[in-house]
Amino acid sequence: MAQGLDWMARKAGLVAGVGFHFSFTWCSPIGFFVLPIGVNHCPVSSTVIQTPPVIPAKREITTKPRFSDKVFRGVVTGGGLSSLIILGLILIFLLWNGYTILKSQGAHFLTSSAWQAATTDSGAIDVKNTHFGLAAMLVGTMIVALIAIVVGVPISVGAAIYLTFYAPGSIKKIMVTAIDLMAAFPSVLFGLWGFFVLESSGEYWAKLLTKYFSWIPFFKLPAPYVSRSPFIAGLVLAVMIIPIVTSVSREIFSQTPLDRIQAAYALGGTRFAMLRAVAFPYARSGIVGGVMLGLGRAMGETVAVYTVLNIVYQVNWHILFSAGGNVASMILLKFGEASPYEVKALMAAGLVLFILTLIVNSLANVIVSRTGKSGR
Amino acid sequence: MTTLDSQVAAPKPRKPWAASPVDRVKTAGVILAAAIISVAIVAATPLKGKLAYAAVFFVAYLVLDFVISYRKAGRAAGVDSAFRALVTSGVLLAITPIVSILVTVWVRGYHGLHWTLFTKDMHSNAYTDPVNQGGLLHAIIGTFLLVIFAMVIAVPIGILTAIYLTEIRGRFTRPISFLVQAMSGVPSIVAGLFIYAAILLPFTKTLNGIQGSLALAILMIPTVARTSEEVLKLIPSDLREAGVALGGTQWRSVAMVVVPAAKSGLITAMILGVARVAGETAPLLLLTGGSGTKNFNMFSQSMGSLPNYIWQCFGAGTAESITRAWAGILVLLVIVVLLFAAARTLGNRKVGK
Predict the structure, then answer these.
(1) How far is B18 from chain A, CA to nearest CA, in Å?
(2) What is the pTM of this model?
(3) What SS3 state is found at A132?
(4) A348 and A210 housed in the same domain
(5) Which of B157, B194, B266, B331 to mutate to test the interface with A (most CBs of A within 10 A)?
(6) Do residues A231 and A142 both lie within one domain?
(7) Do B193 and A31 touch (CB under 8 A)?
(8) What does the DSSP assignment read for B255-287?
(9) Do A361 and B191 touch (CB under 8 A)?
(10) CATH number 1.10.3720.10 is the correct assignment for the domain at B137-348
(11) Which of A63, B220, B293, B323 could crosslink B112 through cysteines, CB 3.0-4.6 Å?
(12) CB contact under 8 A, A196 and B108
């Protein structure tokens, strides 16, 4: 023991003396104390003991981060900032590529709904007659996403309420797993399912709707074509957003303060009364946030919409009619045979889509993060 | 005293709120009655089809349930049971598409399954050839490579982000957590366009695998970061404090204590990230192309992948190619479900062990 302590002191002195003060403070005290004792029979010969012990320099106690910590913090902060960098780069590159189009088309890019890449006889781009306008696709995006919200949200919220407040344990576990699994389904699967399975039912429902509700302007049919309509695309998207809206709402509902729930029951309330008086007011803004997240998903969906929807370049308010579109699926559709000039227009369209989803998602996150704060 | 206690049998816990056998019989009776009514009404009136059965059944159940509860305990009870029926229908409607999708994929996909799927590629076959010719080995290899490379890029960044958010908590914590959430909403086509604009147009000018991996990594980072953040938050701060109290620097207490404690959770995050991108189609259509031959080189030549195979088979449009597409989806879905199950199993382990 004495030998070990002596050796330790000598080593400390050596380190301090030679000027490795830095590495001395870096190494953890526990390692410093334990290590020499643990390796007691290390080659410390008897001659060493006879040397006069050197008193180590006073250890500096500081809260300053060590060198290793500085590196660590730098690396982690760099990794953390990557999301900022990536989002910024996306913005810059799409803007850089789409700038010429945005400049030449101006506000028409958002308000007109013509998409023609005209070329002169020699094959060069005829900028004057080239029109790129996103209006039809923006309207289409909104219509399809809104149908998804209108259909999907009541189902999701109902499911979330059932799973949080009604379901017995075993059923709850299975159903939660199933719904979470659905969130991991690839979108191409939803597309094919929509095309082959939902399409026939959807057409039937569309015919019923237009038969009995054609006095509502949206359900009118300008021509008797109901296949591959925005209605069916909206239904597919509704199925796609059910998992996310359900899981966000479920999360929020399960955070409802138990004391308030029990207070409601103690006052003699039924479960519905409790939900109306306690759970809904508590979870309302969180659900709205979840809905916005779903809306963001629905607006950015590409492959499923492309598969199910008949993409036609016109503003179509008749949701049962076989014509519609969405910015993302339009980009995919036009990308295949686009000239380099048109690709730039598609980049600009991507920029618009990116900004749109970013706004919706940010709003959603702000709203979700506010939930519950009022309650606690 | 203790002997007396042990002699008295503990009273069985009573659950007055639970459904008694009589209640169960009553519920079954109501369901049966609603079913009979729906059959009768559909037979008697011009309504027809599955939708009519379901709608009439639902309305009949709602009304019967309401009336019974109303007679028993008044209006509040009636509304309560009607609401119960409503939310139950909500969960049924949410589950129906899942069941429908799984059944569809199996029923349509298993015709296309055979061994050569996993041993051959499509270099000498067209998508419209009979199903037993050619296979999707190239697509499986492609998806595997794309996902692995995406993982190599995204997992370190995602976990570093999570560590920043939970351990360092510097002045960027709030903006970063906000941006990570915003990033999780970036549409996949936009990620594809970004890589197209940033790498394909100025540099490579051709399709290859690594571009696809980069786009997938962008989609993967938020999933990994958010799940890891949740996991790291669950690590008790006692562990961190113990690490620091033993004299460890922050770097050591994170690397030697916190991260090992959260290991299974971090692996879960990784797997969920993989499951998120394994079926991603849109960016791959723009960036990797879909060659039918096996390609092991990420940096040259177009690279097939499962989503791309499915997409092209679907696009070819014949009965044979559609069967191929469903078989491809079945394989992809099995991969996704296995990943999901693995994530679940790991995630259910207690954190910190």
Answers:
(1) 10
(2) 0.85
(3) strand
(4) yes
(5) B194
(6) yes
(7) no
(8) IIIIHHHTHHHHHHHHHHHHHHHHT--HHHHHH
(9) no
(10) yes
(11) B323
(12) yes
